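User: Can you fold this complex?
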Amino acid sequence: MACSEDLLAAVKAMAEVIEENKDWLTDLDRPIGDSDHGINMARGFKEVEKKCSGMEGKDAGTILKTVGMTLVSTVGGSAGPLYGTAFMKAGMALAGKTEFSMADILVAFDQAIAGVKQRGKSEAGEKTMLDAMIPALETMKQAEVQGKSRKEIFAEGVKAAWAGAQSTKDMIATKGRASYVGARGIGHQDPGATSFSLLLEAVSRSTKTGAGQVEMVLNAEMEEDSGR
Amino acid sequence: MTGIVIVSHCRKLAEGVVELARAVAPGAPLAAAGGLEDGGLGTSYEKIKAAIEEVCKEDGALVLMDMGSAVMTAEMVLEEAASEGLDVEMADCPLAEGAVVAAINSAAGQSKEQVKQAVEKTWEMRKL
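Assistant: Here's the predicted assembly.
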């Protein structure tokens, strides 16, 4: 079981990873987007971070909804309503819970993806964050069925997310600003798929338990997977 | 009269479209929601919300927007507005043309549905 405290630690880790990688995200956004993904995400998560102390002791639903609303209000670009919707939908799935199982987390993740699809009127294969989210969830579901530990489930999800983010290089965008670039966007990794992979990686690193050795190996692999 | 909200990534663009529409139809209730709180480029949930509240009276309001996050953010504001009982919806149109047609029809006392129909017909207005 995970608790609200774990979730808040994960939220803080997400804010940190975005701040650390904001220049990279903006660089990825330069050739195919508005050159603002890193700046926008960092602005949003900075506000999220400020709200963390006020979220202590709250249930997971309230925490996730607060994160979502804050992102919608402060990000400014498409990532605002997309991630905002994702967090709010996840929050609805975990409403009232202060403790939740891996199965609960996967249901919330599933709802988050449904929210992004609906908000962006998008599906897999359109060079968006969904191309990291969907394989991550599928992999995590399988790992859960196989009875793996939470640490392992997250680690495998992160690996799948990065593979998905990398796969966006070969895709032609049909949604959002990148669709105006069309085939000229081939070879460029989608910033949204990248930021999602970073967020999931941050959550994965923030989850407690797990043997140190395994963790170190996985972390080294993650660096390689990301294309950083 | 039907309220009209103009949403854009750019403060100047939203204000300019409102200025243009107001010049053509001085009586129409128009409000601009452009750019972020700090004046930068982007779409602001709060600005859109405030603009809707400003012009959405008994005859309801229509929201016209540019692209991308403007559409998605407006959609989220509308979900909240609906839960508060505000009669507001989005209209799909080229922004400047739609705003002018919306203002003219609103000032003429057309209902929200009638204004929306007229606005969405602007897709058929070829320039050349």
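Chain B touches chain A at residues 36, 40-46, 68-69, 72-73, 75-76 (CB under 8 Å). The mean pLDDT of chain B is 96.
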